[in-house]
Amino acid sequence: MPHEVDHRVAEALVAHAGHRHQKLPFEGFHSRLRRPLIYRTAAWRQYAGHEGLICQAFIRGHFRCIRAGMFRMIAALSVTLLASPVLAGATDWQEIAPGVTARLISSDTLSDGLTMAGLELVMPAGTKTYWRIPGETGIPTEFDFSASTAVTGSTVHWPFPEIDTSQGYMDYVYHGTVVLPVELEVSEGAVLDTIVTLGICSDICVPATARFTLPLTFAGPDSAQTIRLDQAMAQTPVLWDQPGEPVSVVTLGPSGSLYIEAPNPALDPAKFIADVGDPAILFETPQKSPDGNLWTLKPLGGADTKGLEGSPVQLTFLTPTGPYAVTRTIVSSDPA
User: Fold this and answer.
1) Suppose 161 and one of 87, 110, 131, 272 were both cysteines; which one would form an S-S bond, judging by CB atoms 3.0 to 4.6 Å apart?
2) Mean pLDDT of successive 10-residue segments in the chain (336 residues)?
3) Alpha-carbon distance 197 to 38, whole Å?
4) What integer pLDDT is reported at residue 88 of this predicted model?
5) How far apart are CA 216 and CA 107, in angstroms?
6) All domains of the chain, ordered by start, with CATH?
């Protein structure tokens, strides 16, 4: 028997897509994100979690993997998204590598001199691109807004990556569809003229470069792009705001390894990245002591870690409540 659609749910989602000030009930999202995300509402999960459905389809503009009972709700949402001024908030798609398309998107809103834009990538299965620290084999993604008009500053926000060791190397990557949000300091009349350089890898790795031009009209919010940007920001690390400290002291031992003392039990070593600001210095997955109170991070590939004492290290990690990042100063002390 087909699953019946609750039209109250569809109406609530449609209202949310068109009116960002209306907050739906939600839970389990990253606590520092100010905007609610429809895919994390209880109403959305009624459908998105039902029978293991894959529900990115309406975001990507097709209905693959959607069961017949959901068609009316998805169609209603699609009408709402298509009715928004998509041309105002997105460039045309460009094929930047075989099978890989990209475009620049914008929320098309201005608040206190700030707006959100982002690079949206769609990659086929088996293809990946890279985080801000690519890892052992990748090419970092870089943005150049210098040719833009009325843009005075930019900050790229990086969703937490996959830690990929499938090829025998440790890389920090993205697969499938990904949005890399950028917070921009702008004024009226802004035009984004953006050059993006990134690595695209499947069987081989190639550098790709694309140029996008997007006028920011601020005539009205683009709800479809705002949803995409909100989803990406929900996956972006924020400062730790949970009870207790995630880690206490980070020390550098004579062997060149980092030691992390008293890590929070909520932390998973397999979803933990230590970044000293030099892409040539990477660390292996942390190894736990028998009691779990000490983690050891060995330098990858014999990287030279001498002289890191007194330097900052950014620790980025994924927890059940979302991704976080903290910074600690490395001290010199070899635990006994």
Assistant:
1) 131
2) 37 37 30 35 30 30 32 32 50 96 95 96 97 92 96 97 92 97 96 97 92 92 94 96 91 93 91 94 95 94 90 95 95 67
3) 31
4) 61
5) 9
6) 7-83 (no CATH), 94-236 (2.60.40.1230), 250-332 (2.60.40)
* pLDDT, position 302: 83
Cα dihedral 231→237→240→246 (10° resolution): 120
Residue-level pLDDT at 59:
30
Residue 16 to residues 21, 38, 48, 222, 281: CA-CA distances in angstroms?
8, 8, 17, 12, 44
What does pTM read for this prediction?
0.73
Backbone CA torsion sign across 256, 257, 259, 260: positive
Structure tokens at 139: 């090419």
pLDDT of 6 reads: 39
Neighbours of 336 (CB within 10 A): 3
Both tokens of 241, joined, read 């705001």
Tokens 């001199």 belong to residue = 113
In terms of Cβ atoms closer than 10 Å to its own Cβ (0-12, 13-18, 19+), residue 232 is buried
Residue 150, class by beta-carbon neighbours within 10 Å (0-12 exposed, 13-18 middle, 19+ buried)? Answer: middle
Residues 151 and 298: beta-carbon distance below 8 Å: no
Output DSSP code: residue 51.
G
The structure tokens listed for 108 are 């098309």
Segment (H or E) for 48: helix 42-48
> How far is the C-alpha of 278 from the C-alpha of 294, rounded, in Å?
24
Q: Which residues contact 98 (CB under 8 A, 6 or more apart)?
A: none
* pLDDT score at 336: 46
User: Residue 250 has which token pair?
Assistant: 């980070």
State residue 4's pLDDT score. 37
Three-state DSSP at 249 gives coil
Q: Which residue has the tokens 């990134």?
A: 198
Residues ≥6 apart with Cβ < 8 Å to 217: 88, 108
| Torsion sign, CA atoms 296, 299, 305, 310 | negative
